[in-house]
Amino acid sequence: MSSVRLMLKDHQWExxxxxxxxxxxxPGRTGAxxxxxxxxxxxLARTGVPWRDLPDNFGNWNSVFVRFSRWxxxxxxDRLFAAMADDPDFEYIMIDSTIVRAHQHAAGKKGGLKLAxxxxxxxx
Length: 124
Hints:
By secondary structure, the chain is mostly helical. It contains five helices and no strands. It has one domain. It has helices at about 10-15, 35-45, 60-75, 75-85, 120.
């Protein structure tokens, strides 16, 4: 893991861990290395690279994506951010539109948005 810079300090991780699924006390499967997974998500957020460019040190990019998607649907990220919001060490992780650039294709197709008149409106 030496080629990839990690972000979480031990005290931050210890504070996060109880809020994540896959603890031995949780029903079902134990989470396989939650810390490495969270580090992968932080690395992606910091670098802005596509999922496929995730370094192999973090595991298979598709597995990381599927797990991220599952946690998103289950509200894990919302609960985690709510629990960590008062930690000043996490200020640098906040992401908003002022620091995230959209891919050139995110703006839509060439020529901009075209609105079609609805049939009901045109009949009047």
